[in-house]
Amino acid sequence: MAKTKTHFVCQECGRTAPKAMGRCPQCGAWDSMVEELIETNQTSLNLAQQHGWGGLSIPQKLRDIDDAQEDRIPVPINEFSRVLGGGIVPGSIVLIGGDPGIGKSTLMLQMTLKMADTNRVLYVSGEESTRQIKMRANRLYKGSNGMVTSFPEELFLVTETNLDVIFEHIRAISPRILVIDSIQTVYRPEMQSSAGSVSQVRESASLLRELAKSSGVAVFVIGHVTKQGTIAGPRVLEHIVDTVLYLEGDRFQAYRLLRSVKNRFGATSEVGVFEMQERGMIEISNPSEAFLAERMVNAPGSAITVTMEGTRPLVVELRGLTSHTNFGNPRRTPNGVDFNRLLLITAVLSRRLNMQLSDQDVFVNVVGGLRIDEPAADLAVAAAIASSMQDHPIHADVVLIGELGLSGELRMVSQINARLREAASLGFKKAIVPHRLHRKEAWPGAIEVLEARSLREALKHALIK
Ligand SMILES: Nc1ncnc2c1ncn2[C@@H]1O[C@H](COP(=O)(O)OP(=O)(O)O)[C@@H](O)[C@H]1O
Ligand SMILES: [Mg+2]
Ligand SMILES: [Zn+2]
Q1: I want to staple 399 with a disulfide (CB 3.0 to 4.6 A). Which of 20, 103, 350, 423 is the partner?
Q2: Separation of alpha carbons 349 and 345, rounded Å
Q3: What is the distance in A from the centroid of ligand 3 to the CA of 5?
Q4: DSSP assignment of 367-383, as one string?
Q5: Residue 107 CA: which ligand is closest?
Q6: What is the pLDDT of residue 446?
């Protein structure tokens, strides 16, 4: 293979240079020079042919194009399949992102173990030896009697980080599913940048994408999320792949959420729920029930709400705690809800309900390690804080749903009936919701609905005094 050339390109202004530079000589941006492959007849288009998969694209007449539903490869883990949009699309590339230690490798190994009886899988790890992976597989695969049952026929493992070598393996083995664990460990040898750099991550992912498109192999790429919440710095990775799934959850709590944030082949913001156990990631098909398992009934500071994750309603418990502080700046500490949202809610409680929060630290937790992004939980957050502050519990059979406005008014939220039905199915008797201006649809019958115009009115119904 002829030597492929690279250069460094400023991501701000496009200035190129043959060597890495800390600062762009043209626009003055810092750390903006990223290594890129120079397009020669060696790269890109020809790579596919070089490696023997696929070839040049051929324009087709629209009327001749086969529009039969793409055959998906079924995934025998429901919670995973749901997030993918119903199975794996051949030729697609999926990114599984998440913090280190959250369970990405575990989940992928579990999935491939279940699929490799009928689908050939190549699992490439740059992080663990094949022995280590075998040990994990043993742990995941323990039958009910503790005996290891037989492993699937078609699961191949290799520890490798050089993409050229990985492609040799792909050619030799011809897998239907390829797992790269992780994108930060693999590298293209023709580039000077080290593995894990923006350049390597981007170019490696592009090459894997080409592989997927031209050969039909379904590629899963694991990526570690950095503290800033982006994968190895480059958001570019999200643009390269077809589907982005994030595995999230509190490291110290067992629940894990697999969330789709981008999906070319299905709905986004779908969520799958798992519990991390000794035997791996166990599917939780009724998450609301699980989230309420540790619930403290009749304890001040506990409030229940229903949040939507994609099309799926989840009943969750919020806990609030207020505690007197002698220091100047009282703290606001949210865990699972947005910091600015919490500031707004405490401001409304102070100004509209005359609650003396200026000398109180306020803590809010979502039980189970869930993260709530939508304002529909405002009312429950406010109620949890008020309940703790006044030391009055909230009625145990009540759920609180609603967005809070700056004047303490309540605003209706989307998909209210789906939320109410979920609450009813778990035995909740009453829901406190925003007042409706337009009565489009009847409330679902199974739960008593109390409409409140304001936070003050809602709290009057919610708190036991
Ligand atoms: N023997 C074990 N029993 C139960 N859980 C384990 C065991 N070994 C590791 N784990 C769990 O698996 C997690 C690592 O998961 P892993 O799939 O390697 O994460 P990631 O690939 O996202 O970094 C650890 O945080 C730990 O909680
Ligand atoms: Mg891992
Ligand atoms: Zn520049």
Answers
A1: 423
A2: 6
A3: 21
A4: TTS----SGGGHHHHHH
A5: 1
A6: 87
